[in-house]
Design a protein that fits this description.
CATH topology of the largest domain: Glucose Permease (Domain IIA)
Strand content: 25-35%
CATH superfamily of the largest domain: Glucose Permease (Domain IIA)
Shape: elongated
Number of strands: 18
Order of helices and strands: HHHEEEEEEEEEEEEEEEEHHHEHHE
Radius of gyration: 20 Å
Number of domains: 3
Structural class: alpha+beta
Distance between the termini: 44 Å
Amino acid sequence: MHFKGISALLLLLNVLPLSAQDRYAVNISYDKRHSLLDSVIMEEMLEEEEEEGDIYEGLYENWSETKVNPYGVDLKSLKDSFAIDCREYYPPCLGYVTSNFGPRRRRFHNGIDLKVQIGDTIRAAFSGRVRVRQYNRGGYGYYLVLRHKDGLETIYGHLSRFLVAPNQEIKAGDPIALGGNTGRSTGSHLHFETRIMGNPINPAKMFSFTDYMPLNNRYYVIKDKTFEERMRYSGNYTGRTGTASKYSNLSYYTVRKGDNLGRIASKNGISLSKLCKLNNIKASSTIRPGQRLRLS
């Protein structure tokens, strides 16, 4: 988009009154106006990637329209050290956090609860496709599971109404549902989860729920850090099995300016094919300064 077009849209956003649900566009900490200018801007950013891949291939082979976690992949067999592109992130709602990720009484809370009123608009955090649109009486109530690229899936629970259909393609920021108080809920709120191959990640590791923005352009999934809460909580991932200590003793390399995969492999005494296999990437994949690569 040309500069004049961007300027005109910025001026328009400054003039038009915005509802509470559209206040993303004037957030002080993170200028969402640039995200609302035109989808072309985001497309241009994504075109910088050499390998985008299909969002329904790669890590996943299963497509279930009824199960939250149809994969059966636990942390021990989950691939380590790969990246999630967070640049497209759009806050699902403007609510404040009412309950954090982690242990809750006798169970584990796999997401974050965000305060919304019944009927508030819930939006897609990323572009992707609707995988599950179901009702669960004893838990999520009316809920959606969306699949995105990089292996990420997001879940939206306790909804009052769906605004999307099963298998529908959606864009980041699209309205997908209305907030509610259905299922196992003590008050109207949005239950929001982020998962990789069915394994929940604390959304607060990736996003700020006060500034409505991603914490970094990319989030690197490294098991001992990404799933530390689950490792401490679950008997399957404690010192008894050695899983946690195994992951914490892994060796990593931080990419520097001018590095390429062949040079990194040679410098660290491993083959290029092994380096790619350990990091779930290809020899032609793009790497960036600051990225962590697993070496062992």
